Amino acid sequence: MDTDLAFGLAELRGQIAELGSSIRQLQKAGMDSASAQLLIARKRAELERLMNSNGATATPPTRRG
């Protein structure tokens, strides 16, 4: 796998993990998380497109907890 692609995938996965954490914190505080949920959906779609367009075989991270 190309190192630029691997770096891009890792960066997107990190952003998705951070957004997931932010969404949980917002929900726990009783605040609206709609915009964060929209952003995470877009990042997931971007990750999927990147993986599919470059034939990447890496699997996306699994949800913990």
Concise overview:
With 65 residues, the chain is mainly α. The protein is built from two helices and no strands.
Topology:
Elements: H1 3-28, H2 34-53
Helix pairs in contact: 1-2
Which characteristics define this entry?
65 residues, mainly alpha, 2 helices, 71% helix, elongated
Please give a structural write-up:
With 65 residues, the chain is mainly alpha-helical. It has one domain. The protein is 71% helix and 0% strand. The chain has helices at 3-28, 34-53. Helix 1 (3-28) runs antiparallel to helix 2. The mean pLDDT is 86.
Which consecutive residue ranges, at least 5 long each, have pLDDT under 50? none
Largest sheet properties:
none
Give the total of beta strands.
Answer: 0
Helix-strand makeup class: mainly alpha
User: How far is it from the N-terminal to the C-terminal residue, by CA?
Assistant: 30 Å
Rg over C-alpha atoms, rounded to the nearest angstrom: 13 Å
Number of domains: 1
Helix content: over 70%
Following the backbone from N to C, one meets helices and strands in this order, namely HH
Mean pLDDT: 86
Fraction in beta strands: under 5%
Count of discrete alpha- or pi-helical segments spanning 4 or more residues = 2
How does the overall form come out from the CA principal axes?
Answer: elongated
